[in-house]
Specification:
428 residues; alpha/beta; 8-stranded mixed beta sheet; 4-stranded parallel beta sheet; 14 helices
């Protein structure tokens, strides 16, 4: 595809107007001010539009799309125990597949090109990702409440088999990560065993960390360590890792993240909605820790509107620090794109750059909410809407195009998701 006369947000987050951008197979092959020579293929008129990197959702539970709106106005523990866990107990592989497909369609609509997912029935999630053309880092969430020998845990075996079957499949679109669900859902032996396994693999560790005040405090009471220090002691940060939430991380925890190269993934909408708190992302940015953004699940969000997520992250931090300079629009965009790609171990993604993967989105910037333009990046974070996304491309393949889903039968996906939800509700 050749984008003509289009405004671009380049690899340095600088705005350039009237550009030409060519995609050859799965990569960006040309960015310039003039038409490239001898181009054959689809030409996309970019007047009144902005081309930029797609978004990388660095923490999610995609199958939970089936629980959108099911548990409302509850704190995290009541939300989990009274609504989510009973529903999840009735899930099967087909329901997980249907929920994942629904979530991928919504992701494409909002410009999300890749998702770091933590859940179970992961083979069915992988099937959905490979079929629809998405990118994803999927991990089998490990829990061990009973203190079973980690080597005998079925979930550990599933994680190992999942990695062997699916890691780097779909021409590298699908990666398999390792995941300890959290400190409080397992024991130290399991955390160490998973760390040992992950050390032998080319993979990322994905863990919930200090999401609530209670989780953070109770970990200190149990172990004399914060969740971050406990996980570091177990060796889970010896590999590249995603620490999701980190709402109550201390300065010492941030030192660990910086030293170990851990990515902090903030989930502002979900954390606010469940009244868990707000991650102090300005400290993370100032320390040079890689920052990414996640939606968490649709059950706790309740959408995948990533532009909204950027805005809430920025203004939430301003509100809690009482500092209007705490987070810049550039900080928010970088976290939503390059920060997420880095978290997922996708070194050639997350920026509009020749040679990078063609994970691109087009936004309509001719709509009233985008005028006047004193600064396009300011408008992108504070004025744009998820509905302004016109096109989403992953590895050079268009997966969303102005209301059309070329890789998904959207009516079938919605129907199947509704059917699965109704069948589960009947069994509750």
């Amino acid at each position: 595809m050749l984008f003509t006369d289009i405004t671009v947000l380049d690899e340095n987050l600088k705005v350039r107007e009237n550009c030409y951008v060519a995609v050859d197979k799965d990569r960006i092959s040309y960015i310039g001010d003039t038409m490239p020579d001898e181009y054959n293929g689809r030409v996309y008129d970019g007047s009144g539009k902005l081309l930029m990197s797609g978004f990388y959702n660095a923490h999610a539970h995609s199958p939970m799309a089936l629980m959108r709106g099911y548990g409302e106005n509850l704190n995290l523990q009541d939300w989990l125990n009274k609504r989510i866990f009973p529903f999840e107990d009735k899930l099967d592989g087909e329901a997980v597949y249907n929920g994942t497909m629904l979530c991928m369609a919504e992701s494409f609509r909002y410009g999300i090109v890749s998702t770091s997912d933590m859940y179970y029935f992961c083979e069915d999630m992988a099937r959905a990702v490979l079929e629809c053309g998405a990118k994803a880092n999927i991990s089998r969430s490990i829990v061990n409440f009973a203190g079973i020998d980690p080597g005998k845990l079925p979930s550990m075996k599933e994680a190992e088999e999942l990695y062997g079957r699916f890691h780097n499949t779909g021409a590298g679109r699908l990666k398999i990560d390792m995941s300890l669900h959290a400190e409080y859902t397992s024991d130290f032996a399991t955390a160490c065993a998973l760390a040992d396994f992950a050390r032998s693999l080319d993979t990322v560790n994905h863990i919930h960390v200090s999401e609530t005040a209670g989780e953070h405090r109770e970990c200190i009471e149990r172990h004399g360590l914060t969740p971050a220090a406990y996980l570091a002691k177990a060796g889970l940060f010896d590999r590249p890792a995603i620490a999701a939430h980190c709402v109550y991380s201390t300065d010492e925890d941030l030192d660990i993240f910086k030293t170990k190269g851990v990515t902090v993934t903030t989930n502002p909408v979900s954390n606010m909605k469940l009244a868990s708190g707000i991650c102090n992302v300005d400290k993370i940015i100032k320390r040079g820790i890689n920052l990414a953004i996640g939606t968490d699940s649709v059950a706790s969000n309740n959408s995948l509107n990533f532009i909204e997520e950027m805005k809430i992250m920025a203004i939430g931090c301003k509100a809690t620090t009482l500092n209007p300079e705490a987070v810049t629009p550039e900080d928010a965009v970088r976290a939503a794109t390059l920060g997420g790609a880095k978290a997922q171990g996708r070194k050639d993604c997350g920026a509009l750059k020749v040679g990078n993967k063609a994970d691109l989105i087009v936004l309509d910037v001719s709509v009233p909410n985008m005028y006047p333009v004193h600064n396009m990046v300011n408008n992108l974070v504070y004025s744009a809407s998820g509905s302004d996304v016109l096109l989403t491309m992953i590895d050079g393949q268009v997966v969303y195009d102005n209301g059309e889903y070329p890789t998904i039968d959207i009516e079938k996906v919605i129907s199947n998701a509704n059917k699965s939800t109704k069948e589960i509700l009947k069994r509750l």
